[in-house]
Amino acid sequence: MLTKFETKSNRVKGLSFHTRRPWILASLHSGVIQLWDYRMGTLIDRFDEHEGPVRGVHFHKSQPLFVSGGDDYKIKVWNYKMRRCLFTLLGHLDYIRTVQFHQEYPWIVSASDDQTIRIWNWQSRTCISVLTGHNHYVMCASFHVKEDYVVSASLDQTVRVWDISALRKKTVAPAEDILRLSQMNTDLFGGGDAVVKYVLEGHDRGVNWAAFHPTLPLIVSGADDRQVKMWRMNDTKAWEVDTLRGHVNNVSCVIFHARQDIIVSNSEDKSIRVWDMSKRTGVQTFRREHDRFWILAAHPDMNLLAAGHDSGMIVFKLERERPAYTVYAGMLYYVKERHLRSYDLGSSRETSLISIRRPGATGMNQGPRSVSYNPAENAVLISSDVDGGSYELYTVPKDPTGRDTQEPKRGVGSSAVFIARNRFAVIDRGASQIILKNLKNETTKKCPLPVATIDALFYAGTGNLLCRSEDRVILFDVQQRTILGEIQTPYVKYVVWSMDMENVALLSKHAIIIATKKLEHKCTLHETIRVKSGAWDESNVGVFIYATLNHIKYCLPNGDSGIIKTLDVPLYLVKVSGSSLCCLDRDGKIRTMQIDSTEYMFKLALIKKKFDEVIRMIKSSQLCGQAIIAYLQQKGYPDIALHFVKDERTRFNLAIESGNIAIAVASAKEINEKDHWYRLGVEALRQGNHEIVEYSYQKTKNFERLSFLYLITGNLEKLKKMLRIAEMRNDIMGRYHNSLYLGDIEERIKILEESGHLALAYATAAIHGFDDVANRLSVELGDNVPVFPENSELLLPPAPVVHDGNWPLLLVTKGLFEGAFGDHGTAVEEEDVDAQAWGEEVEISDVIEGPRADVRGNDDNEEARGDDEEEGGWEMEDLELPADVGASESLAPATTATFVVPLQGVPVSQVWTQRTSLAGEHVAAGAFDTAMRLLNRQLGIQNFSPLKPLFEDLHMASHAYLPAFTSVPVVPLALEKGWSESSGLNMRNSPALLYKLTLLEEKLKLAYRVTTEGKFTEALKLFLGILHMIPLLVVNSRKEVDEVKELVGICKEYVLALRIELKRKDMKEDLVRQQELAAYFTHCNIQSVHVKLSLQSAMALAYKGKNFNTASTFCRRLLELNPNPQTAAKARQVLAACEKNPRDENQLNYDPRNPFTVCGATFTPIYKGSKDVTCSYCAAKYVPEIAGRICSVCDLAVVGADASGLLCSATQIR
Questions:
Q1: Are 607 and 558 in contact (CB under 8 A)?
Q2: What is the average pLDDT across 737-742?
Q3: Burial of 1007 (0-12, 13-18, 19+ CB in 10 A)
Q4: 300: which residues sit within 8 A by CB, 6+ positions away?
Q5: E strands, 1021-1128, where?
Q6: Could you name the Gene Ontology cellular component terms for this entry (predicted)?
Q7: In the predicted model, is pLDDT for residue 892 greater than 60?
Q8: 1175 DSSP 8-state letter
Q9: Could you tell me which of 110, 474, 679, 905 has the fewest CB atoms within 10 Å of its CB?
Q10: 738 vs 1198: CA distance, rounded Å
Q11: Element (H, E) at 412
């Protein structure tokens, strides 16, 4: 059985496959109907209007409808698109067992415990016939696929076949009187439109299920007598053909397989059985441990079955449908209908090579699984699962006729594959070795498997093999018996080599790993839908095309992927060359189709930086859509993305990102929102284009920024106008700032005097030499005249040296894509900024608040004010931009140097922190705060003091530092794991980390040695050091995660044991406490050699303390560990002495017979059944009073804290 999908739910009583979509309906005993997508493994919808169990459910063949029947006596017809019940059919008087739509007519047949079968017209919503005759519950009823028959099964021990041809004739040509009579008969006698054709008797108990064969005149039934019976019928009679015995409880359901000559049944004996129709024998049995089976359903077109049981359902296949095939040098070799065939991919010529016979192949799933071709000797190896794994070696004839029935050379073993001109390898699982054989099928060499768990071999070049185990693939040199490479992978199913054998794709169920020929990892793709096959594009090096159940997709060398085409049925890719794709379907038919390769060719050109190709494709093809725009933005090409976009807001964002001020100005004009003008100003300022900055500030009426801009650009004329505008707006602070920027002392004194700040006005006048004004103000101030310090300075800004247009911009060569798409004219038009338009935009009437201030001033000021009133604006005719703003850039020839903004990339450290939840990688990136939050959440760590030096070391070690000039800071470079020269510029790997599992294992060995030598303080530091490093560790596989967790447990035990021993050595005066601590030490889970040493110490202390009974227990435990002869002799002497006087002088808090753990803080036993609290990191046990304190074993985490657990590998996150 190949399980494709499984659910966990209430008991499933009804199932139905959708004819075209990958959907299945499941009706539950709880009253809910579930709609599942079995391909995606997701619940699409649920319908729960029935009261009580729903026992029958069925999809309509062509309409978006399904019907259900339940224990509430109701038949409901639903529309799954509208997600509601359309109507309810009432008439049955007891539980409804099954419901089914007719293939052709608008009929529904239903079977009920009221002993009747009813046929309903779902269009007129009426019952058109009632079939009576059964005298017990009718358990099922169903239409024949083609004939006018209904078959029913009942607990009255019979199967009945009903002829409904009269009903069909009446439906095709109805007459009113016939309908009226029919309705009367229906109500009174059960109707005459359906008559019993046959009554099949033979079961000894109630019959639970009966079903027609889709094409042959056969019926199969299953009953409570535990038997499955097969019946044949003709026009005049029906008879029992055979009985299939094997079930040990009631048979719940039985059906014919839609595409094979087999019968499938399930039973309350918790099994599904498969029977051979021709041999009438059982072929296979599948059992569940706790769940009884209730229902079976078969897909009408595909090789899929579903079974409902007590705790859910399973969708499964009985046999693999993937044809065995291999490709070599433009030739496809594959097995179809017991023939080995070849297909020339160039000329499209198919040839039958050899007839394949499989004697003794009984059972399912024993067809060919793989084909290996040897071009040198024209030989073929075909592997299968017969006898637990076997192979057949054929020699292909030079002039094949297809009738060649040569006897192959056979052998037992799995994964037979050629590795040289005259050698092939096969796995002998029994002896855990690889056997090399010659073409005579003689063993020439044997070598042990590089890893014991290897279960499959794949070709990897002459003399080399790819060996698959559960979590890795190994590159193995058979001659040298050496491992050349290794890569961690999910369970690999298929291997596809590129034409040049430089790259390999490893295909697992839900992932694709691309690696080099030395198994160096390049990229990994994860899929939610099952991956079925793949092939390398021969026209575009590095592109891998693969098929899932419902898509053809591509994978680029940098790991980018996308969809090329949607599939109706799964296909197995054979060859891809440009836009032509050749594949096999499940029937072994060869298909050739055209695919649109534009998208991945475009991305590939970008990756390889073939920008001329990129420009050509943009001009010629129909590339568009949000996906392409997002991709270009993500990869750092917003300037290209700009040419795909029509939406002004998106254009503005991309123009700002790529630094294209011309397009940004044009888009900002169209959008005309304050936020966009502000962002344009920020970008223009970053580029130093202060004329556009000025335009943006005017558009947003940002007077303060505008004044400061005029100050730093030395534009005094416009600063004076800003002063007059501030005066008209009655903006005191604006006037003062502008006068300060201008160095206008008189204006400043006037403003301060007008606003009542006489002391400041006096100070300004006196310091700057305006004595007349200062004297006048001193009279008004009287005694409040301020005193100035001697070193007071003048507040005068420096005079601008030169003011001439824009600042110098960064001059770089024009960008590759500037003007490539015919947008020269647009830029000129977009940057043709009209000064008059600026003036009309910001009117003084908009910004004056309240009545105009009575501005005192000279005649010039009065004149200016009059002008303003006349214009009603800023008099912006003086704020003219140079006529060549933007135009100079666009009209310049293509070779002119122009400004292209250098793009700021995302710091590698930021990428590291965004991509992972592993604390070690956050520390490497320098994000100590997020690392501490992660450790607190995952392990409950609160005391970070011991980790501070580790944080610093890890961060420093993950970066290289390049010294520059003395005046320039050091340049840090992030060090990435697995980096190579072929890595893409935008590809970011995980950080290279200082702490590795192998380092900790070395430290552990050292700590063991130091402990054995009795250097307990030093050993304690080593074990604590390991405990402190583990939270920052990052490993690659689940196996290593388990090793890390085991390491935490080891270190915890040793830290606790060593703390106990050191505590004992400090308690020199208290002999009783010394004995207790020595006793506790012996119960720590440490290595045998250390347990022996601790027992010797405890034995000696107890004996000296005259606790002979306790000492004797230590002696016995020591002797059980088989110590060296000298220690054993001493232990026996002590034991003999203790047994002469079996008593304890002192009462110890120690009971060796009651299991206990030692509290890490109080060093007292916590006996089994007593309450305790645990450290969230190291799992050390404590008495409840210690909860909330820092763990004294690991010195990091809070005792009793809630934590999610140790996270040290990306595999845990997936």
A1: yes
A2: 85
A3: buried
A4: 17, 19, 258
A5: none
A6: COPI vesicle coat; Golgi membrane
A7: no
A8: B
A9: 905
A10: 60
A11: strand 409-412
Neighbour-count burial of 839, counting CB atoms closer than 10 A to its CB (0-12 exposed, 13-18 middle, 19+ buried) = buried
Residue 272: CA atoms inside 13 Å, Cβ hemisphere, count? Answer: 25
How far, in Å, CA of 883 to CA of 880, rounded? 8
Nearest Cα neighbor of 166 from 134, 117, 119 is: 119
Q: Is 929 in a helix, a strand, or coil?
A: helix
Report yes or no: 242 and 200 within 8 Å, Cβ to Cβ: no
Backbone Cα Rg of the chain: 43
pLDDT at 111 exceeding the cut of 90: yes
Residues 462 and 454: beta-carbon distance below 8 Å: no
Neighbours of 980 (CB within 10 A): 11
Bridge pairing between strands 305-309 and 158-163: unpaired
CB 1090 within 8 A of CB 1166: no
> 169 Cβ partners below 8 Å, 6+ apart?
none
- Find the range with the poorest average confidence among 142-146, 835-839, 1055-1059, 1060-1064: 835-839
Cα–Cα distances in angstroms (integers) from residue 57 to residues 25, 315, 778, 1039, 1040, in the given order = 7, 16, 103, 45, 48
pLDDT tier at 784, thresholds 50, 70, 90: confident
Q: Is the pLDDT of residue 1071 over 90?
A: no
Query: Using CA atoms, how far apart are residues 1180 and 1050, in angstroms rounded to an integer?
Result: 11
Residue with tokens 């510029």: 985
Tokens of 345: 């991919």
Nearest to 866 by CA among 849, 844, 846, 850: 844
Q: What is the 3-state secondary structure (H, E, C) of 449-508?
A: CCCCCCCEEEECCCCEEEEECCCEEEEEECCCCEEEEEEECCCEEEEEECCCCCEEEEEE
- 441, pLDDT greater than 80: yes
Query: Two tokens at 407?
Result: 């006897």
Report whether 1163 contacts 1063 (CB < 8 A). Answer: yes
Rounded-to-integer distance, Cα 1193 and Cα 1196, Å: 8
Amino acid of residue 977: K
420 DSSP β-pair partners: 423
> Helix axis angle, 1038-1066 relative to 1016-1029, nearest 10°?
150
CB 307 within 8 A of CB 274: no
The one-letter amino acid code at 1144 reads: D
End-to-end CA distance of the chain: 27
On whether the CB atoms of residues 632 and 650 are closer than 8 A, the answer is no
Percentage of the chain with pLDDT > 90?
A: 27
User: Residue 613: what pLDDT?
Assistant: 75
Residue 326 has a CB neighbour count (10 Å cut-off) of 17
CA distance 1060 to 1162: 10
The amino acid that residue 447 corresponds to is C
* Joined tokens for residue 1008: 């063991």
Q: What is the pLDDT of residues 572-593, one digit of tens each?
A: 988 888 888 898 888 888 888 8
Residue range 607-622, pLDDT digits in tens: 877 777 777 777 676 6
Which two tokens mark 629? Answer: 């725009």
Nearest to 190, CA basis, from 241, 240, 130 = 130
What pLDDT is attached to residue 627? 67
Q: How far apart are CA 730 and CA 948, in angstroms?
A: 58
Q: How many CB atoms lie within 10 A of CB 527?
A: 17
State the Cα torsion 1028-1029-1034-1036 to the nearest 10°.
-110
Amino acid at 1105: G
Phi, psi of 312 (to 5 degrees): 140, -150
Alpha carbon distance 1012, 1005 (integer Å): 11
Q: What is the pLDDT of residues 1142-1180, one digit of tens each?
A: 888 888 888 888 888 999 999 999 988 888 999 999 999
Q: Which residues pair with 425 in a beta bridge?
A: 417, 436
pTM given for the model: 0.56
